[in-house]
Design brief:
Layout: E1 2-5, E2 24-29, H1 31-34, E3 38-42, E4 50-52, E5 73-74, E6 77-81, E7 89-90, H2 92-101, H3 112-115, E8 120-124, H4 130-133, H5 135-140, E9 144-145, H6 147-156, E10 162-165, H7 176-187, E11 198-201, E12 214-221, E13 230-238
Parallel strand pairs: 6-8, 7-9, 8-10, 10-11
Antiparallel strand pairs: 1-13, 2-3, 4-11, 4-13, 5-12, 12-13
Helix pairs in contact: 6-7
Length: 239
């Protein structure tokens, strides 16, 4: 078995959504002067690879600190490669086309039972390549997911409990109206939906392809009581 991280290490250069404060790490005590090391961290809870929970947008939404550990382990992960250009949105038709072409899980009636077991979707847009070489582009021209796609998933596949993406947000920075709608569609409770989704943003999916076989995905948020969302470590076990 092989384990890999799908999250970036958090440091002072970690990208944060526009308007948020960049992380700072102060080497407060040193071995040479104090005999031991300590660090003072100042980090917004939506910094680096992080998980958005319903409390991010909904007054009555669940906070990430209230999730049981069992709800943060995923056993049926689907990986989709959906290349996107700057400022683009994955449309519902784009999404259906990708599913129809999927090698082992074509989105057809005969595969419905397989789809009903999927609990997490990883979307590789390829936009991660700009995280290092063009940070401004990564933060302001990122692709996202149209709210119709999220609605489609929640109506048809209520077993899905999370979506992860290799851009700074699941929604386009250039389309704030859809950004709000996409998040709320993921988080809202409705009779014909499954559980509210967890959204993992700014993931490192550079080591994956749609052919990778994930046995389990572990989502480990910072344990800070009462906060809506948190930086997180994401680790997968590969078959």
């Amino acid at each position: 078995m092989k384990y890999i991280y799908l999250s970036y290490s958090l440091d002072e250069d970690s990208p944060v959504y526009k308007g948020l404060k960049k992380p700072s790490i102060d080497h407060k005590s040193t071995i040479s002067e104090d005999g031991y090391n300590t660090y003072l961290l100042c980090v917004e809870n939506h910094s680096g690879t992080h998980v958005d929970a319903p409390g991010h947008f909904l007054e009555d939404g669940k906070s990430i600190s209230d999730y049981d550990l069992a709800k943060l382990i995923f056993n049926n992960v689907l990986i989709l490669e959906i290349p996107q250009a700057s400022d683009s949105e994955i449309s519902l038709q784009d999404f259906k086309n990708i599913l129809e072409a999927h090698e082992t899980l074509n989105f057809k009636e005969e595969n419905k039972d397989k789809w009903e077991s999927i609990d997490f979707i990883l979307i590789i847009t390829g936009f991660f390549k700009y995280r290092q070489k063009n940070l401004e582009k990564y933060l302001t021209e990122n692709p996202g997911i149209n709210p119709e796609v999220i609605n489609f998933l929640r109506e048809n596949f209520p077993s899905i409990r999370g979506i992860g993406i290799d851009s700074v947000s699941i929604s386009c920075f250039s389309n704030p109206d859809n950004a709000t709608k996409a998040h709320k569609t993921a988080f809202i409770k409705k009779d014909n939906y499954g559980e509210p989704l967890l959204l993992v943003e700014d993931m490192d999916l550079s080591f994956l392809s749609a052919k990778a076989n994930i046995k389990q995905l572990f989502l480990i948020p910072w344990q800070v009581k009462g906060i809506d969302s948190a930086p997180c470590t994401v680790m997968v076990q590969l078959n």
